[in-house]
Give the backbone structure.
Amino acid sequence: MTIQTSVKALGGVWKKYDDEDTDKEKIDISDIKKDIKDVIQSAKLIIADESQYWAAETCQIISDNSLSCKHKIAMSATPFRDRGDDILIHGCFGKTIVDINASYLIQRGYLVQPTIYFLPIKNKAKIKKTSYANVYKEALVENPIRNELIAKMAIEMKDQGRNILILCKQIAHGKLLEELIEDSVFLHGSHSGKKRKEHLDKMRTGEPNITVSSVIFDEGIDCKPLDSLILAGAGKSATRTLQRIGRILRPFPNKKDAVVVDFMDCCKYLKDHSKKRLNIYRTEPEFIINEKR
């Protein structure tokens, strides 16, 4: 069962992890609720991937109900919280016993070294919208200069034989980019698992292609041929930023490098978020950062 189903069986309510969490689940579990509860309360071992989520109230409920558990093991590429409340993770699993960062793995050939290009977008510097939602819509989703630049870079990368992933936060943005970028495919949460799998299998062949995706590709996707990432969306989350870059760092035959394109959006709210992402990249000594002025 999923985390959402588990919490419902325990009498709790699933809550979003952060403002980018869009996963929803509508399943009637009334006939198996007791069975799920019994499994959780009788399990002797818990192995948790993406352990940063275990500071959330949802996961805390599951941990509190693991009455028989003797061994708990947690793993994550980003085993910390943006809010700094890591003590809640430690409460479930204890303190970190092994810490291996991306730079350590790059130095030993387990990951590919990325070059991160940070491009300034200044055409909305004097935007007067007040709310974050309005600024995001005008400066990112419906910004023709920014979107056309993304399209141009994606097409050039494909012509170079690269395998490109473009990540955005909003479906409206993804649809605009799909229209702009010839031969691109946009995937989001409303697509069936079958459609996602079929496209992911195509991506894994290593043939040059352009995939536009919503947050469903943020984590948990293993597609080693990916070597180029364009961050069309924005945000300040350290965990999500590093998870996204991780999509293109896995070695693959004839894969020599990895390229990330991010943006310094010079307008209200978004500029501060861009700076926070830049500072996150700087925490990894092996990340090559190329800032455009």
Notes: Residues 3-93 form one domain.
